[in-house]
Every structure is written in structure tokens, then in C-alpha cells.
Amino acid sequence: MQKILGYIRKACEKYNMISDGDSIAVGVSGGKDSLVLLRALAEYRRFSPQSFTLSAISVDMRYGGSDTDFSAVSEICAGLGVPYRVLPTDIGQVVFDVRKEPNPCSLCAKMRRGALIDEARSMSCNKIALGHNFNDVVETFMMCLFNEGRIGCFSPVTQYPDRAQDLIRPLILAPEKDILSCCRRNGIVPLKSPCPADKHTAREDMKRWLAERERADRGFTKRIFGALERSGIDGWHE
User: Fold this and answer.
1) pLDDT given for residue 193 in this prediction
2) Fewer CB within a 10 Å sphere, N or C end of the chain?
């Protein structure tokens, strides 16, 4: 956990993610990234230079019209002293049953993010923390380049001035391998994803391609990440 806390502290300082008095809602899907982020931010608030409060929200996609069991997340939040809400939605049904999206991830992410922002606002949270990690950054950058023909990525901090809210991504400097190690060492057990498209997405294809390139050319992903930071686009900087 200490290594993860180091990544979070560096990201927060580098991109001014947290200010005194912030009320931060962590978006918790139940996956490894969001659970590690939740645990780490609960620990980080003990020694952070800024004073902030923490809560957690799970957006239930309700795939097939069935409620997702978030009881394990509820227990974690209770142990950490973090207020927790589950927001039931029909996003899963809209994306897969009604729209029958052949490439569901983009629409799903957009709808889930909108629901999360609205729920966080109802809880008077001015910031929402998402669990995107170092590898997610590189994958997104390369998918924008290869699939959309543009240079871009999500931002470390995304501002919504009309809502007086920000999205922050404190794990952007943390490699996926270190997050997996943190789970093993701290007994963090991710929930099994109920998404019908799990492991069968364009992102998974990019993840495998990047892993192959990294095996053949060590440091490949790190150089891409560095290029993104040096580009100065979308709020990134060295």
C-alpha cells in the first residue's frame, strides 16, 4: 500500500487534485482499481497536507435487470468509516438490451459517469475520484491514435464549472502490476465483473498488444506515457 500511496501523493501534488475542504466521492465499481483507490484515499487522508472528507458511490448497471451484489464493498466502507451509496440504474439494459451496442464501452462509460456525477452532487461532493491507472492512460492514448485518428486522452483532472465539480484520477501514475500486487498483499478481493462484454473489448485488444510490445521492447509503455506528458494536451504536463 505504501507504493500506491506514493503514486497518489505525487499525482495529487503534480496536478493539484485535492484542496482543503474538498468532499470527495470515490466511484467504486468493485474492480481492483476502484477498491485500491478507496483503501488508499482512506489512508491518505490521515497524512495529506489537505483536509478532505471521503464517501463512496457504486453505480449499479443492473445487467439483465438484476441488482448487483455490492455487499462486500459495503463492508469495506463500513470498516473504513466511509459513507457509501449504491445507485440503481438501467444503464446495462439500455446499452445491451435496448440499443444492442456492438461497441458498448463508450456509451456505457458516458452514462455511468453522468449518473455518478449527479449522485455525487446530491451528496454535496465537489470532486469525484476515478480509478484509472497508468496502463489505462497509455491504452486510451493509443486507442485515440489508432482507432480515432487523433491525439488525446482523458485528463488527470476534468472540470465541470457549471456543476462546480471536478473528476480526479489519483492512480494515473500507478502501474497495473503494482495495483495487482497491492491487492494480493492487502487481501483486496475484486468483485467479478457482470458486464457481458468483459474481456471482449477494443481496450482488451489494445492491452494485449501493448503487453506484447512491452515484452519485446522494455520501457515501451513508459515512453508513450512520457510523450503524453510532454505533449501538454488535455491537462497533462511533466
Assistant:
1) 86
2) C
Strand 127-129: give its sheet, edge to edge.
84-88, 52-60, 22-27, 127-129, 165-168, 157-160
CA contacts within 13 A on the Cβ side of 63: 12
Task: Tell me the whole-structure pTM to 2 decimals.
Answer: 0.94
Strands 127-129 and 22-27: parallel
Q: What does the alpha-carbon distance between residue 197 and residue 103 come to, in Å, rounded to a whole number?
A: 9
Reported as a single tens digit per residue, the pLDDT across 57-86 is: 999 999 888 899 999 999 999 999 999 999
Nearest C-alpha neighbor of 235 from the set 149, 144, 167: 167
Q: Helices (H) and strands (E) in the chain — how many of each?
A: 9, 6
| Cell numbers 503494482: residue | 178
Please tell me the distance from the alpha carbon of residue 31 to that of residue 183, in angstroms, as a whole number: 11
Element (H, E) at 13: helix 2-14
DSSP string, 150-171: S-----SEEEETTTTEEEE-TT
**Long-range contacts for 109-112 (Cβ within 8 Å, ≥24 apart)?**
112/59, 112/61
- Say if strands 84-88 and 127-129 run parallel, antiparallel, or are unpaired: unpaired
- All structural domains of the chain: 2-235 (3.40.50.620)
Taking residues 197-214, report their average pLDDT.
91
Residue in 124, 136, 102, 103 with CA at minimum distance from that of residue 29: 136
SS3 of residue 49 by DSSP: coil
Look-up of cell digits 500500500: 1
